[in-house]
Each structure stands twice: as C-alpha cells, then as structure tokens.
C-alpha cells in the first residue's frame, strides 16, 4: 500500500496518460469558457498534448496544428467537475476487495461518460480510493482526475467517525495527523463539524472549535486545503472563522440570514451545492422513471435500476427522512440562489457517485433560479476554486489542461443540453466510450476521428 501511495504523491496532474494525448484544432465552435462570459461564436481552440495552447477567434487563428475538428453548430465547455462525491465501492468496508474496485471503476467510468473530467472524493476507505487515485494519475484506468481526502478527520463520536481518523487532543494526537498526511497525502482535508450529522438528526458529539482551528492551521502549513462538513448557518460561521478553506455542504436546516449571505459574498469561501443527495430520496419515491433516462441506463446495471425502482423506493417511501428532505430542499435552493446572486462561490457537488447525478445537480441549480450560464461556471470554474485548482482546471484558457466537452446543443438555452455530448476530452485525449467499463451496457463511440 505504501508503495502505491508514494506513487500517487509523486505523479502530478500532468502525468495522467500523457503518451495518449494528441494535437487538435477545434475550429468554428461556440465557446462557453466556464468563467461566466457570454458564449463566443466562431472560436478556435488549439490543443497540444495535455494542454490548451491557444484560444482565438477563428478568423485570427494561424499555424493550426494536428487534427482539425469542425465545431460548427457545436458548443465547447470545460470538463465538468464534481467537487463532492463518495465513490461507490469504498464508503463502507468491503469484504471483497476485487468487487469493491470493480464497482468503483464502473462509477468512475460513468463520470467520464457524462462529461465529468474531475472529481473530489470527500471521504472514503483509504485502501479503495487511494490506489485508484494512483492508477488514475499513472494513466492505468479510465477515470476522471481523482482528488481525495482518504479518511476523514473528526472528533470521537462525531459524524462519520467510523471512516475517520479520530482526534481528541491536538498535541497528544499529532502523530495521527502526521501519519495521515504522510501516508494518505490528502488533496483536500475533510473535517466533520455538525452536531446533527447532516440535516435534522439526533444530537451527536461535536468537535471543539479550538481543536478544529488547530487542525486546519496544521494542514494548511503542510500546503493542504480543508473542507468542513456543516449543514447550518451557525456551524458554517464557526468553521469559516476557524480558517476553513471551503464548506462541504450548503445550509439546509433553515433559511440563511441576510448577514450570512453578505459574509459569504465578502469572504468568498466556496461551498459544495450537494442538493442531489437529499432530493434523490423523494425523486426516487415519486418519480422512479428518471432511471430510464439514457445516462442512467448507461451508468447502472438493469438489475440495480430495478432494485432502486422497487426495494430502495419502498424503503424511501417509508422513511420520514425522505419527506423532511423534500420540505427542506426548496429552502436550500433559495439559500444557494441568494448566496450566488450576492457574489458568493457556489461549487457543484453531488455527495453521490455517478455522472448522471452531476447533471441532476445542474438541473436543480437551474430550478433554484440560477441561469444556465452561471450554473456552468458553478460546475467548472467554481468547483476548481473549491479544490484550489483554478490555475489548471475549470475553464477554457491557454495554459490549462485540455479537459473539454463538445456539445451538440446550447447548454445556456437549456441546461439539459449539457447531456448532448459529442465527445469528452481529458488531458488532450478524446475518450473512447466503447472502452469504458460502464455498469449499464457497452456504449458506441460517439466521435470517430
């Protein structure tokens, strides 16, 4: 395990499948750059290796290299980023390691198929997620870029402590923090800080705020960003003033105050939207037909979809939690809309483990009243900001990684058009969908070069 983890640390983002990257000129395309700018018609984007090397009006494009792709009538966006997942196959301890890995690689394939080129796993079994991260960076598996926490850090008895490194005293437990940093090399540290776990649940132990502040400072001194699990305004404020770099969830326990909205706009602390995880309960209970959409059919086996439509659905229909989440989701939507409108930084995150969930998250953000163009920024540039990777990912600009999605319809007119994928490119390589280990069914390649 240590050898694998050491490899993960040694390999940079640029190491993802560099030998397979090619040279392309994507011509006469409508560009949606991820930065919130209005779509730009008739643009040319040059890709050389794993990087974007030029973005210019087609009339000014000169000395084009490599394979030329006619983008007339199509729309180019940055690769989508899901800045909060828990990868299937690793959340709970697995007796069968091979089955856990197979489940995880199928889920990763579903992200790529859906146009998601980067994910952040915000807490998982280290022996599942960290070898996958190493393999992704070595170009050994078909996967989005994987950023990972590994094990969470929490206070004994707090939310998620069954998959966490438990810290009760900073000085006495510092060796555990050092071991986590050295062996797991988290891209972002996840701390849980919520006396009710997620939403309105029975009271549980809460990490002392001074301890949280010490841990955040310590990881920052090692160059590691932090994200804090919260679900209400009070805990969000305490996390922010303890030095949190981001928040893992929006406030869902009640309407946010005007002063909190202004603070989020001033501080610009990114937070993951994670609407889908709660809304999914009532959606499945009331509208299981969504599982027949093409992305879901490709991403889940027929047997799993049938189980969700029957056994899981019945379970959700009987749970009070389902209907509490249905009531509170509109509250959360309005909280997110207000913060975004004020200039706060909303970043797309689903808290789930499939590419289709990313698209559902965008649909819900539009339902909140956020324009599709802004939602695309939330799903790309803002998500990269949460990860501290906006200098490399999240927008179509020269010098950044060539993580791109070509669409056949305008996503700013209808966010569902983000599903109309002509091809997905990661690190300068156009993905061959026919080779993805999707759980649903083998898919034909979308783009024949």
TrEMBL record:
Pfam families given in the database record: Amidohydro_1
InterPro entries in the record: Amidohydro-rel, Metal-dep_hydrolase_composite, Metal_Hydrolase, Metallo-dep_Hydrolase
The keyword Ribosomal protein appears for this protein: no
UniProt signal peptide: 1-21
Keyword terms of this UniProt record: Signal
Domain Amidohydrolase-related: 75-430
Protein's UniProt name: Amidohydrolase family protein
